[in-house]
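Re: that backbone. Tokens:
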């Protein structure tokens, strides 16, 4: 049977939607899940409670991934919990803006880029050294 018993997983944007469902599924498979959130603390804590009620392991951690140091702050918290080994990284947190092209402002573009592109890039940079089973040929220093 497929199991993630003894494995650690970080799911960004796990307070709601797809990230929440993913985190719950990883916990059901036995993983120790880090439930990341930005603003929805109550939702994240409720997922942690749901997982723990089923004898799973989970913690909620917060970081605003729209800020320049958000990814580094998140990575620091992750390392404090899991130590030197992270098995699963799900880069799910993201935003969109329902607007016509003509209605986009520079600030909208910068916010989308910071959250959806910059933060996953630097989160991988920060966590690659502790990610288990690194892809063949990929070195932390690259
Ligand atoms: N649903 C779709 O049809 C669809 C289609 C294409 C792509 N996607 C992408 O798939 C991912 C999940 O979609 P979803 O519909 O499940 O999204 P969602 O319900 O809007 O949830 C987004 C998650 O990302 C987190 N997040 C957003 N901005 C953040 C920030 N600055 N810092 C930290 N966390 C932040 C939110 O956390 P808080 O609420 O705690 O702030 C929330 O947990 C997103 O990246 C989305 O762009 C979704």
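Recovered sequence:
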């Amino acid at each position: 049977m497929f199991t993630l018993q003894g494995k650690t997983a970080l799911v960004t944007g796990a307070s709601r939607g797809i990230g929440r469902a993913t985190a719950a599924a990883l916990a059901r498979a036995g993983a120790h899940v880090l439930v990341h959130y930005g603003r929805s603390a109550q939702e994240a804590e409720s997922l942690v409670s749901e997982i723990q009620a089923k004898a799973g392991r989970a913690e909620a951690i917060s970081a605003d991934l729209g800020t320049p140091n958000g990814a580094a702050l998140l990575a620091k918290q992750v390392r404090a919990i899991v130590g030197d080994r992270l098995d699963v990284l799900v880069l799910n947190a993201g935003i969109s803006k329902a607007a016509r092209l003509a209605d986009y402002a520079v600030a909208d573009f910068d916010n989308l880029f910071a959250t959806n592109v910059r933060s996953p890039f630097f989160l991988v940079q920060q966590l690659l050294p502790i990610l288990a089973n690194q892809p063949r040929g990929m070195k932390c220093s690259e």
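Residues 13, 15-19, 37-40, 64-66, 92-96, 115 surround NAP (CB under 6 Å). The longest strand covers residues 32-37.
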